[in-house]
Design goal:
The chain has five helices and two strands; from the N terminus they run αβααβαα. The chain has helices spanning about 15, 25-30, 35-45, 60-70, 85-100, and strands at about 20, 55-60. The longest helix is centred in the C-terminal third of the chain and has 15 residues, at about 85-100. It is rod-shaped and about 70 Å long. The N and C termini lie far apart (about 70 Å).
């Protein structure tokens, strides 16, 4: 695949066409306070550029940053991690099988 270059800037067309965000926009995108964004940018934790007095963020780089921040075993959807009564019963049985003992029910049958 050939990357087209901007003849004026000498940059790849993908970088030139990428949406730039201000500190406030980046903070809204990352769901953090703008001061947190600035501190992380200064520390080099967030990909950012400071061509003058203000920070500039590329949307695609922030998206990549977010993707690397999610632990591998974390579910991608919130409701996947919420236990249901069926999951709890299955988990109880699995743990009882591993421990080799049976948990007595509090109910009398």
């Amino acid at each position: 695949m050939r990357v087209s270059r901007n003849p004026i800037l000498g940059l790849s067309q993908d970088i030139v066409n990428d949406e730039t965000l201000t500190v406030e926009e980046a903070a809204a995108f990352l769901h953090v306070h703008p001061d947190t964004v600035k501190a992380r940018a200064r520390a080099g934790e967030i990909p950012a550029y400071k061509p003058g007095r203000k920070w500039v963020f590329l949307y695609s780089e922030l998206l990549d940053y977010l993707r690397t921040q999610r632990p591998e075993n974390t579910p991608t959807r919130f409701h996947d991690s919420r236990p249901s009564i069926f999951n709890l019963r299955a988990e109880r049985k699995r743990l009882d099988d591993q421990l080799g003992r049976v948990t007595k029910s509090k109910r009398s049958r």
